[in-house]
Specification:
This protein is an alpha+beta fold. The protein has 2 domains: 23-78, no CATH class; 84-336, Jelly Rolls. It has 4 helices and 22 strands. The strands form 4 sheets. Strands 8, 9, 11, 12, 14, 18, 19, 20 and 22 form a 9-stranded antiparallel beta sheet that branches. A hairpin with a 6-residue loop joins strand 16 (225-229) and strand 17. Helix 1 packs antiparallel against helix 2 and helix 2 runs antiparallel to helix 4 (319-336). The longest helix has 18 residues, at 319-336. The chain is elongated, with a radius of gyration of 27 Å. The N and C termini lie far apart (74 Å).
């Protein structure tokens, strides 16, 4: 049939290609990416079920180097690397405890490496990283991994076994033989410029015996560092490079959370717990080189508390910084259990 044709006669044309989505934002767990269009979000080419809008919350199940895209077409965002110092901690824990070290916590967090990364970044931003030594036991699965889960010096295990540790809440002593030694000399910082702390997730029992959170002396000699549950009931007793013991009022050993002693000058030290601070006007009288131990005061007065983190360093100079330390550690523990 002359004059009969297709295409031109009927006005047919090929459909155009969809406009690619442009994804912006830093690809890091906890952050949200935004695209210029809605579409199916993908990680390493695999659809993320239920994620088809123009925003995408990067999940904690990702790993550094994962590729995030959006179908049918978009640019690519690469999941960021860990902070350099956090990566060193993560690698050390895996080297010591094995590839399964950073186990899953509740809330479908496939690994807890990112939570450690969040914590290290926050400590740096608060000025609480350089010069400080610490271990954060919570978040690790093995004795060997926990001993290196932090920075600074060496930690020595005395009698803890695998049944004593918990991924979410740290390590629990038997109150008799189990404690952690360190090579953290009590005089590593100035006589009038030091801090020592621990995070308690389960308080020691109320038996009328001395139970120590940490210390560097069995007694109360000059330059002593100690935080104890005193033998007289549930009172706390503190020495911050001073011989005469001080008793924080209203802060009983039945409490949990951050227990911090901070010596900021020759005449005073601060005790902090549960967002409350008390200042003790007592002079330093020495600077003992004895190393700190945790769960004990120099291997005696061993506590049956459960402790998830501990550390030492220079003075945490301001109330605001001390509040930040408490908040950072609280956020870390909350995220583990989220």
């Amino acid at each position: 049939m002359p004059g009969f044709g297709f295409g031109v006669g009927f006005g047919l044309s090929r459909p155009g290609k969809p406009t690619p989505g442009v994804i912006t934002g830093t690809a890091r767990p906890g952050n949200t990416l935004t695209s210029t269009r809605a579409g199916q979000w993908r990680i390493n080419g695999v659809d993320v079920i239920g994620q088809t809008g123009n925003t995408f919350a990067v999940p904690y199940t990702t790993s550094p180097g994962d590729l995030i895209t959006q179908a049918p077409a978009s640019n690519t965002r690469t999941v960021a690397a860990y902070d350099t110092d956090a990566a060193a901690e993560i690698t050390a824990v895996i080297s010591a405890g094995g590839s399964g070290e950073w186990g899953s916590s509740p809330g479908n967090r496939a690994n807890n490496k990112w939570l450690r990364d969040d914590m290290v970044i926050a400590l740096k931003a608060a000025g609480l990283f350089t010069g400080f030594k610490y271990r954060v036991l919570a978040g690790t699965n093995t004795i060997a991994g926990g001993l290196v889960a932090g920075k600074g010096g060496a930690i020595t295990n005395n009698n803890f076994v695998s049944g004593d540790i918990d991924l979410l809440t740290g390590w629990m002593s038997d109150g008799t033989t189990k404690y952690l030694g360190t090579d953290w000399a009590g005089n590593a910082n100035g006589q009038n410029d030091f801090s020592a702390w621990c995070w308690v997730t389960s308080a020691p029992t109320s038996a009328l015996t001395v139970k120590a959170y940490f210390g560097n002396s069995t007694g109360g000699g000059t330059g002593t560092i100690q935080l104890l549950k005193a033998s007289a009931g549930d009172e706390l007793a503190a020495r911050a490079k001073n011989t005469t013991i001080q008793t924080p009022s209203g802060n009983t050993s039945s409490l949990t959370g951050l227990f911090l002693m901070d010596r900021m000058n020759s005449g005073q030290f601060v005790f902090r717990n549960q967002n409350t601070e008390q200042v003790f006007s007592i002079a330093t009288d020495g600077n003992s080189a004895n190393a700190l131990t945790f769960f004990s005061r120099a291997a005696v007065g061993i506590s049956d508390a459960r402790i998830s983190a501990f550390g030492t360093g220079p003075s945490v100079q301001t109330s605001g910084q001390r509040a930040l330390l408490e908040s950072i550690l609280q956020n870390y523990h909350n995220s583990l259990q989220a």
